[in-house]
Specification:
The relative contact order is 0.11. Helix content is about 40%, strand content about 10%. The chain starts with a helix and ends with a helix. β2, α5 (about 90-105) and β3 form a beta-alpha-beta unit. The chain is built from 23 helices and 17 strands. By secondary structure, the protein is α/β, with parallel strands linked by helices. It has helices at about 1-25, 35-45, 50-55, 65-70, 90-105, 135-140, 145-160, 190-195, 200-205, 250-255, 260-265, 290-300, 320-330, 340-350, 360-375, 395-405, 440-445, 465-475, 490, 525-530, 570-575, 620-630, 635-654; strands at about 55-60, 75-80, 115, 165, 225-230, 245, 270-275, 280, 280-285, 305, 335, 410-415, 430-435, 480-485, 500-505, 535-540, 560-565.
């Protein structure tokens, strides 16, 4: 009797276990299931509130575990300068991201969040990260393989902080240097921009042979999802005014501004960010033709992310309309850093009242989930500390130093071709270093560094200023004298062998950088005048674009465009002092006067100070020494070799 009862109880327990197991099994959590099956299964389980929550991206400042759980928020971002604490370590970042992720995983369906950050020239928000040259400099390298390696390094440093998603690269084609974001553009030439989209393969990894093209791909825990931005034509606005109107016909829009997006999609970019600018008067966020019909249907792209509040002018003046226009145009995930409840309420109302169809919401969420599954967040939602030592490691700094060397463009070398000033000798009695940008790490990094608008000084991250690089490069016997703004009497009263003057622009980002005059900051021109009238000088320009320099050209012996080189100032001295030769070529036209703008290669009124593609070259000191041994004085080793050969021949003839 008892034996039969035990058997019955066992059978009941077995049935119960099977039932529980079947109840707990859900397809979207099973990595063995096809991707589309997992997405469809999860989507079928979601409420309207959960779907709309997934379409929301909020700022770290307002995010809490409770908000992530209760609103099913899809994404969190760090805006420019938004960090867990001052000088936060990689571990601090990981802990912060994981805390928020725990909130998301504790929600009803446990959908992980995707954390995003601007990493536009390295992991630029983070203390101690490697800061690479901005894109304007990388375009001057013409080296897509270098840019891909920068993508590799950036992905590792971003992942070191627990973040799987970056708002990069910017693939704008800047057609007017008055635009405050021109330094985020690789070139005025769309062909160079297209080549540089190889950074996506570095950031995300390259899909295995035989994989489908134009499908988002992220190659594991050492890679990140990338975001091509800003779709489309943001670099062609009238007078270069940020977020302004791009007046251009469809043919030129597609031939100049669109090709890099087609390339990015083909290379598997995960997301695309839509621009705040307009095309022929229509805000891009509300442009259903370009966002849905062209980008999604023609180019077969998967996910669009961006903000919508600036659809109206002034911004936020008719927010309900902005929500409706943006979502119907095809925006999938919306940046609403602080105002997320209003967005959720408005969108929920519109769906419930059939103003926006549920099909559009399902389409958006399906695309968002695709990225999350592709990144691997459902299998590995939590970050660990295994990569923390990747942040700012020497190998990455060496790569940044290489990028600086290759980005430098030599515009002038000597008052005449027969008397070049560069490369400079490392051994001299006394040299002068002058200018506002010679000893300022923030200035040489530019905007989007630690803070949105960059910083001033040497205390906000780790790196090597140009002055420090010069001091460590020259011979120990060379006396280096630094004066930020020396007067003429000081320069004349010293016997300097030569001077290095480093001047340029202050850091800026976005609209703060829009400029109608494009002049260097004071007292830059005075420094050039005071120094270069008295001693041979090389002027190094630190700027995010060409600036006015033509009036001072007769004073200058040598001129170098160094762009915004980042933290590794030694890259500049490597080339100035001849350890490496100059090789960079202008990726944008250098104008004579701002009255000529906009002016791009191929324009009928093209009359530049330095044309697109211009760049002088130099040999290394060693190469020049060897060359002079052949063409100038006889080289002692060659003499010895010839004597030895003659002796051997004489012996053989005897």
């Amino acid at each position: 009797m008892w034996g039969v009862l035990v058997q019955l109880v066992s059978i009941v327990v077995l049935w119960w276990c099977i039932a529980v197991a079947e109840a707990e099994y859900v397809k979207y959590k099973d990595p063995k299931q096809p991707l589309n099956v997992r997405i469809s299964d999860l989507l079928s389980r979601m409420t309207l509130e959960e779907k709309i929550g997934q379409m929301v991206q909020i700022d770290r400042i307002v995010a809490t575990t409770e908000i992530m759980k209760n609103y099913s928020i899809g994404s969190v971002l760090s805006g420019g300068g938004s960090a867990p604490l001052p000088e936060a370590s990689a571990a601090d970042w990981v802990n912060m991201v994981n805390m928020l992720q725990k909130g998301s995983l504790s929600s009803r369906l446990g959908i992980p969040l995707i954390y995003g950050i601007d990493a536009v020239h390295g992991h630029n928000n983070v203390y101690n990260a490697t800061i690479f040259p901005h894109n304007v400099g990388l375009g001057a390298t013409r080296d897509a393989e270098l840019v891909r390696r920068i993508g590799d390094a950036t992905a590792l440093e971003v992942r070191a902080t627990g973040i799987p998603y970056v708002f990069a690269p910017c693939i704008a084609v800047c057609r007017d240097p008055r635009w405050g974001r021109c330094y985020e553009s690789y070139s005025e030439d769309h062909k160079i921009v297209e080549e540089m989209t190889d950074i996506i393969l570095g950031l995300q990894g390259e899909a295995p042979n035989g994989s489908r093209k134009a499908v988002p791909y992220v190659g594991g825990k050492n890679k990140v999802a990338a975001c091509a931005k800003h779709f489309v034509g943001d670099g062609g606005t009238t007078k270069g005014i940020n977020e302004n109107n791009t007046v251009i016909d469809l043919h030129n829009l597609l031939s100049i501004h669109m090709p890099a997006y087609a390339d990015s999609i083909f290379k598997g970019v995960s997301t695309i960010m839509v621009s705040y600018s307009s095309w022929n008067g229509i805000k891009m966020h509300a442009n259903q033709y370009l966002v849905t019909r062209f980008l999604k249907e023609t180019l077969k792209f998967k996910v669009d992310w961006e903000g919508i509040d600036r659809i109206t002018s002034p911004p936020h003046s008719n927010y309900s309309y902005s929500v409706q226009a943006g979502i119907q145009a095809g925006i999938d995930m919306v940046m609403v850093p602080f105002n997320y409840i209003e967005f959720i309420d408005d969108l929920t109302y519109m769906v419930k009242h059939k103003i926006i169809p549920m099909e559009r919401i399902d389409d958006a969420v399906r695309r968002i989930l695709l990225v999350k599954f592709t990144v691997g967040l459902f299998e590995n939602p939590m970050s660990d500390l295994s990569l923390v030592n990747e942040l700012g490691k020497q190998e990455h700094r060496d790569l940044a130093r290489e990028a600086v060397r290759k980005s430098l463009v030599l515009l002038k070398n000597g008052k005449n071709a027969n008397d070049p000033l560069l490369p400079l000798p490392k051994k001299a009695s006394k040299i002068l270093v002058a200018g506002t940008h010679a000893d300022n790490l923030g200035y040489q990094c530019g905007g989007w560094t630690i803070n949105w608008q960059g910083f001033n000084g040497n205390n906000y991250t780790r790196g090597t200023t140009i002055l420090s690089a010069i001091t460590s490069t020259v011979d120990p016997s060379t006396k280096v004298v630094y004066r930020e703004n020396p007067d003429g009497d000081f320069v004349n009263s010293n016997s300097f062998a030569f001077a290095i003057v480093v001047v340029g622009e202050y850091p800026y980002a976005e609209s703060a950088g829009d400029s109608m005059n494009l002049t260097m900051v004071d007292p830059g021109t005075d420094v050039i005048s005071n120094v270069c009238k008295a001693v041979k000088c090389v002027v190094v320009i630190i700027s995010g674009r060409p600036i006015v320099i033509e009036p001072y050209m007769t004073l200058i012996d040598a001129l170098v465009a160094a762009w915004l080189p980042g933290t590794e100032g030694q890259g500049l001295t490597d080339v100035l002092f001849g350890d490496y030769g100059f090789s960079g070529k202008l990726s944008r036209t250098w104008f004579k006067s701002v009255d000529q703008l906009p002016m791009n290669v191929g324009d009928s009124h093209y009359d530049p100070l330095f044309p697109f593609g211009f760049g002088l070259t130099t040999e290394t000191v060693m190469a020049r020494s060897t060359s002079s041994g052949v063409e100038g004085r006889p080289n002692i080793f060659i003499i010895a070799a010839l004597a030895f050969i003659s002796l051997c021949l004489g012996t053989a003839l005897d």
